[in-house]
Amino acid sequence: MACYLKHAVYSKTVTPLILLIMKSLNLTTIILLAITAFCFQNWSSQSSYIVGDKAEDFSLMNVDGKFVSLSKYKGSNGLLVIFTCNHCPYAQIYEQRIIDLHKTYAPLGVPVMAINPNSPLVVPEDSYEEMQKRAKLKKYPFAYLFDEEQTVMPQFGATRTPHVFLLDSNLVVRYIGAIDDNPETPSAARNRWVESAVNAMMAGQFPSPDFTRAVGCIVRKKPK
Questions:
Q1: Which of 36, 60, 78, 180 is the most exposed place for a label (fewest CB within 10 A)?
Q2: Over the stretch 95-147, which tens digit does the pLDDT of each residue have?
């Protein structure tokens, strides 16, 4: 009888508690599943290249009025795809270094392809006409392309200007990130990541590191 009473009291006390926990657990599980589904949907729709991915072909307008495609560079020793622009102070600071990278590595079969990912609706200084003026003023020795519809930028996952993507001869991504570790003073840079990455790739090695954090202005997306 005593055991029965104990069981009855236990059941009356514990059962509602278990039901409450189960309800809370179910609600928590539902919330977690919803968050997971949302995150997965956003991740999958905004997926971008990582080291080891092969870049898909694209074609963008160059400042000379002609379209340039990525496939044009297949078979070369590599390609430095650099997202940059006119207005960004970081892009301007790195401008000469980008020119120098092209002058150093283009003769070795690894040229620079510069791409402006910004919307002129947000930054008028980055319009196609202003790109043409800048390229002429600074005598760019490389292609300077306009990602007007902002379709290439998300493919690569470019978020800053400048943002570098080193591709090999098969257009496979081998390095992503910054040019070096000192935007203000080139001569004081202790790590020249892009140079090291290109040199390693051309020596048949994998760059190390193959990823660094890009430092620069955020890419300006067109209004929705």
A1: 36
A2: 999 999 999 999 999 999 999 999 999 999 999 999 999 999 999 999 999 99
H/E stretch holding 126 reads none
**pLDDT tens column, 181-208:** 999 999 999 999 999 999 999 999 999 9
Q: What range does the domain containing 42 cover?
A: 1-47
Whether residue 106 contacts residue 207, with contact meaning beta carbons closer than 8 Å, is answered with: no
3-class DSSP state for residue 32?
helix
Whether 112 and 82 have beta carbons less than 8 Å apart is answered as: yes
Verify that 74 and 181 share a domain, yes or no: yes
Q: Which residues contact 66 (CB under 8 A, 6 or more apart)?
A: none
**If DSSP codes are grouped into helix, strand and coil, which group holds residue 145?**
strand
* pLDDT at residue 46, rounded to an integer: 52
**Within a domain: 175:** yes
CATH for 99: 3.40.30.10
Whether residues 94 and 174 share a domain: the answer is yes
